[in-house]
Design brief:
Elements: E1 3-8, E2 12-17, E3 26-31, E4 34-37, E5 57-58, E6 66-67, H1 70-90, H2 98-112, H3 137-154, H4 164-177, E7 179-182, E8 188-193, H5 195-198, E9 201-202, E10 208-213, E11 216-221, E12 232-233, H6 242-253, H7 260-264, H8 268-271, H9 283-304, H10 310-327, H11 336-351, H12 355-372, H13 378-393, H14 397-414, H15 420-430
Parallel strand pairs: 9-12
Antiparallel strand pairs: 1-2, 3-11, 4-8, 5-6, 7-8, 10-11
Main location: cytoplasm
GO cellular component, one term: nucleus
Organism: Sparus aurata (Gilthead sea bream)
Amino acid sequence: MPEEPFLSPDKNRGLRAVRHFAVGELVFACPAYSYVLTVNERGAHCENCFTRREDLFKCGKCKQAYYCNVDCQRSDWPMHKLECVAMVAYGENWCPSETVRLVARLIMKQRVTTDRTPSERLLLLKEFESHLDKMDSEKDEMNQTDIAALHHFYSRHISDLPDDQALTELFAQVNCNGFTIEDEELSHLGSAVFPDVALMNHSCSPNVIVTYKGTVAEVRAVQEINPGDEIFNSYIDLLYPTEDRKERLLDSYFFTCQCTECTSKSKDKEKMEIRKLSSPPEPEEIRSMVLYAKNVIEEFRRANLLHPNILFIYELLEMCELSLEKMGAIFADTNVYMLHMMYQAMGVCLYMQDWDGAMSYGEKIVQPYSVHYPAYSLNVASMYLKLGRLYLGLEKKTHGIRALKKAVAIMEVAHGKDHHYVAEVKREIEEQK
């Protein structure tokens, strides 16, 4: 084994290398123990292997799940049958959350699996931390809502569901250890559990990155790793300054990060760049604007949970533009809070098919991203990818090829040179010649 579990200083369990890994080298791969395709991607991706293709065929019973072929459908049936009959019975009222769907599959998988699976070479699912003792009332309430939904949608189809105490622990384990599977543009494809990947501890300066090949997680080195070095992944978006990252990690994963980046705060000054004004803002004004930015980000996050309609989308764009105008009085365009709102505005423009608007936001974002994020960041690669495809769509061929080549340079390290996403982007570049 190229990696082994060990007791990490101050962190309990962890994973360390037993040999040297060069940048871009595959450290290990882990098939999903259990997974579920997000509802929004049905029809675009195979429910079983997550392959993206246009000629999928649908399940004859529910007519909502799509597959590459009969083999994929047969392979997925033990899990899909949980939902197939229920979707027909409930019709439009079928609406369990993605977490509830994943937990239902986990329960079924655990019932039919007696041996250690290939996903659990190093860590068993039942050994996951749940941190139940650290959960606040809001998280506990969310847990109880999920348990009620599981009973409502699945009790007829899963006999003898575990008791509420066991379910509370299982949902807490999934919330702390689950993964989001994303495509090359970081669009959400589904949720999954990868026990061996969950064994890695967090760092805000990670030496590996996790990408996905279908429903398999691949862990690649993004820094040189020597024998005996601990292998660190990042649990969160690394764009934000130290205080924000620490808050997020404490809230979601119940620990205070002590990594070198959090100790040195080396990138905080650049991330919090203030606009050059004849009369510099007072520290209190800056603090007040940071608080405003955080509130807007949270408001936007909650708004995005609602079902989008075209009127609502216009409201979101207006909200982005107003907040950018207000924050821009103090923050420079490279400030991470400005970049966050520009990214949201770009997403709204893409949804509205305002390609010029999306391009202008993307052009402002991509360079600061390259500074703020670590090397070989998926966020930077996906931004170059989006921009490159926008340029080509707007017949800016030279700009498009240049941006796509920058995306490929990162993706070859993060995804591996043989990944189908890399091949697709290279094909897009070739087609322009």
